């Protein structure tokens, strides 16, 4: 997609006042380059059933008491959310008590166990933030002000997504949080590796010749090039004023 950006910029400049032509030309560009702009979304959607199935299976195993084994510093893979007296975030928000002579209250599970369960969600928020920053393209300073503002607003909203995921991880079995962390780690490594590879080996995309004349003045194009550009939908054609003063009469002969 990055290799096609110069052509997209030329299209937006050429058809700045004609959004319909702009969209048609960009669609034609993707078609000629044999690229699908939704390919990345399809990969994410394909993973969704896997995650939902894993969530269901891990939750049921935790409820049946089959995930009581510890993992690293985590006391158990099922976590405190599926215990006999805890549901959701009750293990963290309820049952705080203050021992005689103590200055501060402590959670119902004790500080050591509670911090052990809190560590993985905190790590998950961190890795999710790093992964999202690594995968987000930088904001192009040459974008129109309105488009640039919209992109920055979207990226600003997405910055809160890791916190939402961290909040969700506090209410699911610890095994699911570990899976999510592992997935983030592999996604980050894959993103860094792919970017490094294509930076050293820029992709070469072959396009029809008329794309090379996209930014040319129609007056400087040959009749054959104008015909190809018009067939591809890349020729803006004469304006009403140009037709009236006869500048583009030759287009009809």
Automatic annotation (TrEMBL):
Gene Ontology annotations of biological process type: protein insertion into membrane
Membrane topology: Multi-pass membrane protein
Chief location bin: membrane
Pfam families from the UniProt entry: 60KD_IMP
Stretches that traverse the bilayer: 160-181
Keyword Transmembrane helix among UniProt keywords: yes
Keywords: Membrane, Transmembrane, Transmembrane helix
Subcellular location(s) per record: Membrane
Gene Ontology MF terms: membrane insertase activity
Membrane insertase YidC/Oxa/ALB C-terminal domain sequence ranges: 1-195
InterPro entries from the UniProt entry: YidC/ALB3/OXA1/COX18, YidC/Oxa/ALB_C, YidC_ALB_C
Presence of the UniProt keyword rRNA-binding in the record: no
A cellular-component GO term for this protein: membrane
PANTHER family, per the entry: ALBINO3-LIKE PROTEIN 1, CHLOROPLASTIC, OXA1
Family recorded in the similarity comment: Belongs to the OXA1/ALB3/YidC family.
Protein name per UniProt: Membrane insertase YidC/Oxa/ALB C-terminal domain-containing protein
């Amino acid at each position: 997609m990055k290799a096609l950006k110069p052509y997209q910029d030329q299209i937006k400049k050429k058809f700045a006042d004609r959004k319909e032509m702009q969209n048609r030309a960009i669609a034609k560009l993707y078609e000629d380059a044999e690229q699908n702009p939704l390919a990345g979304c399809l990969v994410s959607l394909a993973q969704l059933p896997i995650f939902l199935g894993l969530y269901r299976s891990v939750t049921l195993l935790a409820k049946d008491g089959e995930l009581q084994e510890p993992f690293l510093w985590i006391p158990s893979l099922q976590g405190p959310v599926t215990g006999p007296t805890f549901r959701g975030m009750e293990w963290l928000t309820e049952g705080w008590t203050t021992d005689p002579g103590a200055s501060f209250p402590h959670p119902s599970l004790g500080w050591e166990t509670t911090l052990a369960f809190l560590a993985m969600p905190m790590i998950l928020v961190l890795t999710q933030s790093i992964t999202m920053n690594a995968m987000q393209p930088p904001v192009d300073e040459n974008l129109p002000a309105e488009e640039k503002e919209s992109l920055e607003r979207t990226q600003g909203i997405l910055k809160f997504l890791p916190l939402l995921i961290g909040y969700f991880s506090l209410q699911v079995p610890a095994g699911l949080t570990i899976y999510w962390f592992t997935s983030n780690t592999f996604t980050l490594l894959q993103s860094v590796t792919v970017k490094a590879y294509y930076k050293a080996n820029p992709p070469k995309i072959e396009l029809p010749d008329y794309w090379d004349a996209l930014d040319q003045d129609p007056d400087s194009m040959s009749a054959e090039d104008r015909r190809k550009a018009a067939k591809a939908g890349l020729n803006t054609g004469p304006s009403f004023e140009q037709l009236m003063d006869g500048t583009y009469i030759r287009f009809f002969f």
